[in-house]
Amino acid sequence: MKHILQFIAIFYFHNTFLMAQAPPPPPLQPEEVWTGLYSLSCDYQTSGSLRYIVENPDFTPFRSNYCAVIMGQHDSSSVYDASRYIYYSYSNATGDLWEPDVLNSGLSWGYPDISIHNGNPVISAYRSDSGTRIFKDITFPAYAFIQLPGIPPLINMSHLTGAGNNIILSGTSSINNFTGQYTVYNGTNWSPLISLPLISGSSGNFSVESGTNGTVGIFGINNTGDRYIYFYKSKDNGLTFDNGSLIFKYDIDGTDTLFANTTGGLQASFRGSEPHLVFTVYKISSNVFPDQYTTEFIKPKILHWSPSTGVTPVAGNFNIMNLANTITTVAMAPVGQPSLSVTANGLLICSFTVFLNGNTQVVDDGSVLNAGEIFAIYSENNGVTWGNANNITGTPGIEEKHSSLANHVTSMSFFDKVKIYYLTDMKAGGWVNVPSFGKAPHRK
Predict the structure, then answer these.
(1) Dihedrals φ, ψ of 237, to 5°?
(2) Is 167 a residue whose pLDDT tops 90?
(3) pTM
(4) Residue 221 resides in a domain
């Protein structure tokens, strides 16, 4: 492998005033670094793909800072809104030292997404009682996030990106039957919500990213309709978008028709002004299992799309030995939640969660749950073909999931490394304090 992948493991971060009660992280594996982020009871972050880590775009040698974010939870008796917080952590140039902090000490914040606006980290966070709110640091890093005022209400679990002087925020809300919508912040005000009628469903449908020359893309699945993937494009830093275009219908694999699905996730990145998208497709079997959380997936795979390449295969049972088809867990696919990054020297890198046959754990209530691993793969020819799918964790006794890459890795030419964020847990499961999914360890 020509390019070294350096791995950053994100564990679980508790509120600062409760640090004395915090459990230690699972054992660090070779090349893993703990950011100080963890949660005592809930490690279910999203049903799709989100950005959890960004890199300082003003890269100079020995000074490439990173910022990571997580939805933490300190109340082991509840999985719902009242016990959630948003935490973030900054690193130094090499990513070997991290300093965590709490974004907002008020309760009920969840489902963060992170991006860069004018060189500084910006975070979206969701509250069920008031919708999405946006927080921006005054520099990178200053540990001084401020809440931006005036955002339109009722956007659920949104995705965001910075483009020029603008912040573009996209999501759905129940008030409009979960039809896609977006709003733009110009540094002073937010625009009224604008409809994206070709996209619908939960927040896992979306990916919002920006490129060069004013390009911005909003990608999503029409999950309540034809389940196709659509792409809205802007050429003016998100001030206006076109009427949307169809970029993927379905994948025919033998006698099976595979659709994109929000549980599998999707994520975009730009190489210059050219958009690239990775997404999960599969078919659900009609088999019924005694456990309501057990699902059989038919031919799950990750695909890539760009205007110049069309659709190309990234990962599936054709390059992952022993890929599971049937898994017992919540809101996950056997191969899914892909994250995509473009490096300074032109590589496309994709990381994702994989469930392998036989990689299971017996949790506290006796349930047998599948435990995830993190894989990574890269393309040297703009996504036409992809290399070997590498298991970068390889720890059957520890679960890893929710991987994330920085959108653009500006330091690649200097360090020749990529940092991959992911969550790790000693016990499998998603909402781990619900008995059917096991319980997270809490050591004192």
Answers:
(1) 60, 35
(2) yes
(3) 0.91
(4) yes
Bond preceding residue 141 cis, omega within 30 of 0: yes
Identify the CATH number of the domain in which residue 243 sits.
Answer: 2.120.10.80
Rg (the chain; Cα; Å): 20
Residue 444 lies in a domain: no
Which residues, in sequence order, are bridge partners of residue 331? none
Residues written for the chain: 444
C-alpha–C-alpha distance, residues 225 and 220, integer Å: 12
| 152, 272, 295 from 134: Cα distances, Å | 11, 26, 36
Tell me the per-residue pLDDT of 386-424, one tens digit each, with 9 for 90 and over.
Answer: 999 999 999 887 888 989 998 877 654 444 567 888 888
Q: Is residue 178 part of a domain?
A: yes
Pick the closest to residue 329 from 304, 352, 297 (CA basis).
297
Burial class (CB in 10 A: 0-12, 13-18, 19+), 57: middle
In a domain, 239, yes or no: yes
Q: Which token pair is 207?
A: 């990916």
- Residue 10 identity (one-letter amino acid): I
Q: Could you tell me how far CA 398 lies from the centroid of its own chain? A: 20
Q: What is the DSSP letter of 93?
A: T
DSSP state of 375: E
Specify the pairing of strand 335-343 against strand 408-409: parallel
Half-sphere exposure of 58 (CA within 13 A, CB side): 8
- The structure tokens listed for 15 are 């509120």
Decide if 185 contacts 166 (C-beta within 8 A).
yes
Domain tally, the chain = 1
Locus of tokens 């393309």: 379
Report which residue type is found at 205: N
Structure tokens at 201: 């469903």
**13 DSSP β-pair partners:** none
Domain that holds residue 153: 4-437
pLDDT in tens, 36-73: 787 666 677 777 788 888 888 775 554 568 888 887 76
3-state secondary structure of 18: helix
**d(Cα 2, Cα 390) in Å, to the nearest integer?**
13
| Secondary structure letter of residue 29 according to DSSP | P
Distance, in Å, from the CA atom of 373 to the CA atom of 323, rounded to the nearest integer, reads 11
Helix (H, G, I), strand (E, B) or coil at 313: strand
Q: Give Cα 369 distance to the centre of its chain.
A: 22
